[in-house]
Amino acid sequence: MAKDRVDSRSGAAAPLVTVLGASGFIGAAVTAALVAEGTRVRAVSRRPAPLPAHHADLVETRTADLTGAGSLAGAVDGSDAVVNLCLCDGGWRAAKSAVGERVNVGVMRDLLTWAAHQPRGAGGPPVVVQAGAVSQIGVPPEGRRIDGTEPDEPVGVYARQKLVAEQALKAATRDGVVRGVALRLSTVFGDSHPRVADRGVVATMIRRALAGESLTMWHDGTVARDLVYVHDVAAAVTAALRHADALGGRHWLVGAGESLPLREVFTAVAGTVARYTGKPAVPVVGVDAPADAPLTDFRDNLLDVSAFRAATGWRPRVPFHQALENTVAALAGQESRP
Fold first, then answer.
1. How far apart are CA 76 and CA 117, in angstroms?
2. In the predicted model, what is the mean pLDDT of residues 106-110?
3. Which residues touch 137 (CB under 8 Å, ≥6 apart)?
4. For residue 250, which of 149, 151, 320, 133 has the smallest C-alpha distance?
């Protein structure tokens, strides 16, 4: 368990950042990034969170089910900032369940209730960083980049719930209850932690390729996606914490800033796995899309992340092909473990 560190200049306890969902794919990477910066972290999750390889003395772990009544306050008590990365086991697909709504909306409401009862120190109200999704806008406009100024018309339950939580955070910021920063993330992939699995499309295709299975895409694979490396996302979260006063009360897009056609992505996966294993590349084949596939699956996802970059100085640093190589190596290692 982390000991209370003292700021050598002020003599006060060093600021504490609590990460909710710290055992998750993004949460593990964010915890590691904060610790690497020397930040005191409380890692909260339903299962024991994986500790960073270095400076574990900075991390306090707490196991808690935040869907239970009154559990949130105890998990975040004493925090100067909270990063909300909670996600159901079923991911976005579980949003229609009662647990999904509780995690995606209820945790934020409980967090804001807690914040409203905190004494105001010289540093101002607590910082809350919320991870949302670019899908909150609904169907992306054709032939134009998303820049965060679009009207929000979410079409899925998960996106609607994320928008409700974000709106509550913005209202609480206007009321002076918190300094809230909402980050809308594009498609995240990568090698978060050896004990944490990535369940996204890139990881799914890597696992298929490692198993020698063909990679299937809908139609001709020309639909483009913005794919951002998980460690670049973690750096964006730490940047949001540092610049909370400038960012507060708004939502900000976080992504690679460039989009790749899925055929190109899947072909790169097949080739990278082949180089890693020494086996022939698996084929990439087109199949018909399901009849009930939503329109959002057929629109390009093009992001303009310049606003967040200008406000914080953050930018994605790991090129796609390097991030893909890192991810293939990590997943191959996971597959080989008993």
1. 12
2. 95
3. 146, 150, 151, 152, 153, 154
4. 149
